[in-house]
């Protein structure tokens, strides 16, 4: 197993694969050219499936760009990776292991990849939370967050695996940030947190995370700013309704009641965050059936399930208002997600037009063009 001071990597920098931002391999703090986006994508996917053999045909499917695209030549990509490693005096046969018919796996020490360093620091922070050591937990969460460098895998094209994996990694980072803020509130709900949380709740991506609104209102109330806290919760209700089409959850509702009635409010008891350590999926959470109005059903169990008017889609729609490639359903860390492929007439989920993506669950009603369908969870 290679470590960060791997033999043959010359110097003190060692071997470092970075995925929490642009995907890149660094050796001795120098970016190593890997021969293009496909070899880089292969390395990233194998790393996210660390220590597990990935069949060649699965690897080719994950590195394709949509159903209609020809799969890449995985063996050429592997050859380019080995050439790149050999040029850096790294023994590629110790890292990229051919399992003789079962595919390829990446043998990689956790210290050699930012994803696994992030997860290790986060796990240590969770242990500190469990022990009631909130100041220590906050510092460990900060250490984990320092591994992030922007949008995960941001320099890779729209390979089939990208959207689900990027969503998982982004969710991991966002949840870790919330846990760090929880630990800071538990330690000292200082007014400086109000500015940070105000900025976060104005961010287009983060503003739909209810926990941030609860944290902001909590800190405001603990700093004797009841009116501001109630204004924050009213704004949260408006934004969640406008953007997500949902009402606030029980946590926000109960918090609003307590603040309105001026009840004593301790910082919310924080919970260790637990995220999957691999990209293994629970099949029950990433499969189901789409049922059309005429009763026809289509099994959704692939990493990418396409819908549109073109006959090559997994679900071909005889609908003049549907685009040729209208939408796709993808597996992700939070379940199944439907994505609008820049269609002309949009995708509607439970009668609300989605803004690019939306999660789907049991009995979700999807409308594409004039065609309605219901998703049934297996």
Automatic annotation (TrEMBL):
InterPro entries on file: AfsR-DnrI-RedD_regulator, BTAD, FHA_dom, OmpR/PhoB-type_DNA-bd, Sig_transdc_resp-reg_C-effctor, SMAD_FHA_dom_sf, TPR-like_helical_dom_sf, WH-like_DNA-bd_sf
PROSITE patterns for this protein: FHA_DOMAIN
CDD domains: BTAD (cd15831), FHA (cd00060)
Annotated ranges, domain FHA: 305-354
Domain of life of the organism encoding this protein: Bacteria
Keywords annotated in UniProt: DNA-binding, Phosphoprotein, Transcription, Transcription regulation
One Pfam entry name: BTAD
Keyword Ribonucleoprotein appears in the UniProt entry: no
UniProt keyword DNA-binding present: yes
Family (UniProt): Belongs to the AfsR/DnrI/RedD regulatory family.
Descriptive protein name: FHA domain-containing protein
